[in-house]
UniProtKB/TrEMBL annotation:
Protein name: Uncharacterized protein
Species the sequence originates in: Geomonas diazotrophica
Amino acid sequence: MAKKESRRNDQEEQQRCAACRGEETFPYWCETCGRSVPEKRCPYCGLKAQKKKG
Ligand SMILES: [Zn+2]
C-alpha cells in the first residue's frame, strides 16, 4: 500500500478530500448517512454518530 511515502499526503487528499466537498465541517461522522454531522446524534437519520479522530 505505502509504495511512495513521500506521496502519502497527496494520495489521501485525492481519495478523501471531503473538505473540498464541504463535508468535513462537523466534528462527528454518521456512518449511516456517510457524512459529517454537527451533533453526536445524527440530525438526518436520528442514529448515533461517531466522533471523528484527530
Ligand atoms: Zn445519519
